[in-house]
Amino acid sequence: MKIIPLSEGKFTVDKTKHFIPFNEEKDKLNEKTTGSLLVEIQPFLVITSKDILLFDTGLGFEQNDKLQLHQNIINAGINPSEITRVLLSHLHKDHAGGISEKGKLSFPEAYYYIQQKELSFALEKGSPSYNTEVLNVLKNSKQVILLDGNGVIDDYIRYEMTGAHSPYHQVFWIKEDSRIVFFGGDEAPQLQQMKHRFVAKYDFDGKQSMELRKSWWEKGEREKWAFLFYHDVKTPCYQF
After folding, report:
1. 2-239 adopts what CATH topology?
2. Most CB atoms within 10 A, among 39, 57, 71, 103?
3. In whole angstroms, what is the distance from residue 50 CA to residue 42 CA?
């Protein structure tokens, strides 16, 4: 397997849910609004013998009239039309912004996988956490596979609905040969969070998130997982 981080840059975000670009050379975190977090926005490509997988879809920002996510994939030497599956942890706007473009799915040859209850919840809940204009394209599309709970895709992609960061959040394991890649979305967003026990106020169930991180980290160490960290500003991937 090959792992390719697709960095969209560093941002600060506060309770307004607005993502503001952060320049490390000029900006200072302590000058931002109280409670601001510094995060990376970083979807991932994982290339296997069967698929080119995309994990989450970033903010959906455009550069030169082109979806930034598309340009990042092109910069990695891959045509966006080659993506075969889009695996979505949840539909918060910083993870789902690149799902659609101009009212159409942004990866026309791919299947999209999301928990059915997550989609229903997101469309009902709406702003500021969810962008329903982007998400509406997921309804009634033959390319969208609505999942219900836990399961396995094509014998090697395992998913589990954990519901700790958002009510119907899911995580993924990719197993090929002897290698295991784990994507925990916003329940395992940064390396340092895996190493320390704490309850995050921004989680739907912070205590459950904390316990999940602990169990994943311990099992990952035993089984030598590769962790993908969507919001880590320094360490996108960590391999035991």
Report:
1. Metallo-beta-lactamase; Chain A (3.60.15)
2. 57
3. 23
